Amino acid sequence: MAEHGPGGFAEWVVPAVAGREAAVTRLMALDGRGELGSAHVRLTASALDVSERTVWNWLSVARREGRLSARTPARTGVSVDVRARLAVWGGNVAAVHRELVAEAVKAGVAESVPSLRALQRAVRQDLSAGERAGLKGGEAARRRYDVYGKRPATHRNACWEGDHKRIPVRVDFEGSVVCPWVTWFIDVATKAIVGVAVTPHQPARDAVLAALRTGISCTEPYGPFGGLPAVVRVDRGKEFLCRTVERALGAFVVPVHDLPAYKPYRKGTVEALNDAVEEMFLVSLPGYTRRARPVGAHRPDRVEDLLSYPEFVEALLRWVRGWNTSHHPEGLAKGMTPLAAWEADPAPVEDVAEERLAFFALEDDGRVRKITTNGISWRRRAYIAPWMAGHVGMRVRLRYLPHYDGQIEVFSTEEWGRHLGSAYLAQAATVEQRRALSSVREKKARALKADLKAAEKLRKARYTATTTAAVPRPRRTVTSSQAEAEIARARGVDLAARALPDLIPPREPPASWARPVVSPRRAADPQADAGQAADGGPPGAADVRDDSGER
User: Fold this and answer.
1) What is the pLDDT of residue 218?
2) 162 near 185, Cβ under 8 Å?
3) Backbone torsions φ then ψ of 382, nearest 5 degrees
4) Cα–Cα distance between 329 and 272 in angstroms, integer?
5) What are the Cα distances from residue 377, in Å, to 362, 415, 426, 430?
6) Sign of dihedral through CA atoms 330, 336, 341, 342?
7) What per-residue confidence (pLDDT) applies to 157?
8) pLDDT tens digits along 239-286
9) What does the alpha-carbon distance between residue 50 and residue 184 come to, in Å, rounded to a whole number?
10) Are 270 and 184 spatial neighbours (Cβ–Cβ below 8 Å)?
11) How far apart are CA 134 and CA 154, in angstroms?
12) What is the C-alpha separation between 93 and 383, in angstroms, rounded?
């Protein structure tokens, strides 16, 4: 029964459509038994908030047509062809309608195309808001209309999520401008950032291993967060899924779950951290690349005004400490920081001894080497250390940090070999030499870039703009003399064109080589061989006889 609330709207216990169908079914049953009366119609009208005349009309339609509910109006549907056209036109229904009308007029069946309003109504009814947004803006736009569930609450170290983020801040790195990258891991339950590693370029597996080592270690300056996680959740980045990371975590029986690509909501905790660091910290730094600027002001900040790389790393680590100790992320109990949530969690922390973590991020190539008077040879370079004195001839194995060759760690060849010490590159270049070498390489790169740009400009033909459907004309016309001159210059620098195979005559073969025997007659008449070859026989076939003159 309908009751009117304070706002004047009826609160329906049964939907109107279902209510009519159920009521008419009951009334028709009463009518069939001869028990239908005005009291029944009056009760139905009051319950469905309609007039008695309307209920009598429903009964009349049911007796005449057998229809218990309202007639469903015919409408236009969205076919597969229309969906494909919507994808072509980016969800523009009016453009699709114009295309359908043009094709129908050309075929002589213009009346077969529904009106624009009917097509728009069909698109709204048959396609969800997410599908319409996806046709216009792609998968990212469609995903904003999806519903995502939340994983159940867990305890600390139950799961870590890791990711890379390119920092949109220009930083001064030894005189050049770079945008650093950060690799970090966050504990899902307490929202604590457990491990961080920063690189001035796109990170590799060494950054992942360094961040994991800082996350597992509970000692200062990395603690009190740490311990072994039950699982590490990452996307399908090759740095996270490489063999080195798998072995390093597998040694502690920690599985790595690689999530499907292009689904950031599957690791929403670290993705939220990526957004938070930009909104809370990066936007205020000098050199922020996404800062709103006045119209026409596109000049970037000067190098002198940018943060140096060490200053940026220090500021980022300071923000990480503030996040862990003073920030109140969503998802935690009211008023709790990640540090408070970590300390309040009763789940035990499985700590790892520091001596077992000392070489966590190092790789081993599996080869056995020998200490010589020059030290240890690795990658065709010598590494030395004071502790090597008196150990010439010892067989050792090496471990090293990925993508770093300035220092190696030396171990004995025994099983679970004992660490002997570190070794350093014997002839490492000074800082001034490395800077000068970098300057020379940058000049060569700029020169090559200019040459390639000039070559691309010469290779790519430019044409005049057209206002009609005509073949455009080249904007620059080359004369025949200019073309010949450029072709000649190209041949002058082409090594293949400059090759002269007959410049140096071949040497006489050694006397020990077997030489073909040439008969005097064939030597005197070289055209005889050509005649025999023309007749189908091999050259000199007429002279192949034995001493008796027979073939």
Assistant:
1) 85
2) yes
3) -95, 140
4) 10
5) 18, 22, 10, 21
6) positive
7) 92
8) 787 777 888 888 888 998 888 877 888 888 999 999 999 999 999 999
9) 64
10) yes
11) 34
12) 70
Cis bond before residue 224 (omega within 30° of 0): yes
Closest CA to 426 of 376, 367, 391: 376
* 201 Cβ contact partners less than 8 Å away, ≥ 6 residues apart: 178, 181
Q: Are 44 and 20 in contact (CB under 8 A)?
A: no
Provide the terminal-to-terminal Cα distance of the chain, rounded to the nearest Å: 124
Euclidean distance between CA atoms 417 and 399, whole angstroms: 11
Q: What are phi and psi of 384, to 5 degrees?
A: -130, 165
* CA separation, residue 80 to residues 85, 123, 309, 495 (Å): 9, 12, 55, 58
* Confidence at residue 156, expressed as pLDDT on a 0 to 100 scale: 92
CA 331 centroid distance within chain? 28
CA 73 to chain centroid, in Å, comes to 48
Cis bond leading into 538, ω under 30°? Answer: no
DSSP 151-196: PPP--TTS-EEEEEEE--B-EEETTEEE--EEEEEEETTT--EEEE
User: How does DSSP classify residue 542?
Assistant: G
Q: Is the dihedral of CA 441, 443, 444, 445 positive or negative?
A: positive
d(CA 164, CA 184): 7
Query: Which residue has 């604590």 as its token pair?
Result: 192
Q: Which two tokens stand for residue 183?
A: 């690799």
- Alpha-carbon distance of 369 to 393, in angstroms, equals 9
* Phi, psi (degrees; rounded to nearest 5) at 363: -110, 160
Contact 220, 321 (CB under 8 A): no
Average pLDDT, the chain: 82
- Tell me the C-alpha distance between 285 and 169, whole Å: 7
Structural contact between residues 379 and 405, judged by C-beta atoms closer than 8 angstroms: yes
Distances (CA, A) of 504 to 229, 499, 500: 72, 11, 8
- 550: confidence class by pLDDT, cuts 50, 70, 90: very low
Query: What does the block give as tokens for 503?
Result: 């410049």
Edge-to-edge strand list for the sheet holding 232-234: 193-199, 181-187, 160-166, 232-234, 256-258
pTM, two decimal places: 0.66
Q: What is the rounded CA–CA span in Å between residue 529 and residue 539?
A: 4
- Residue-wise pLDDT for 299-357, tens only, equals 777 777 899 999 999 999 999 999 999 999 988 888 899 999 999 999 999 888 877 77
Question: Which amino acid would we find at residue 48?
Answer: L
Q: Note whether 187 and 343 are within 8 A (CB).
A: no
- For residue 504, give both structure tokens: 């140096």
Residue type, 266: R
- Neighbouring-strand partners of residue 186: 161, 193
Q: Which two tokens stand for residue 453?
A: 């740009």
Q: Hey, what amino acid is at 94?
A: A
| Type of residue found at 307 | L
Measured CA to CA, the distance from residue 519 to residue 264 in angstroms comes to 85
Mean per-residue pLDDT, 173-189: 91
Q: What are 490-507's pLDDT values in tens digits?
A: 777 666 666 666 677 778
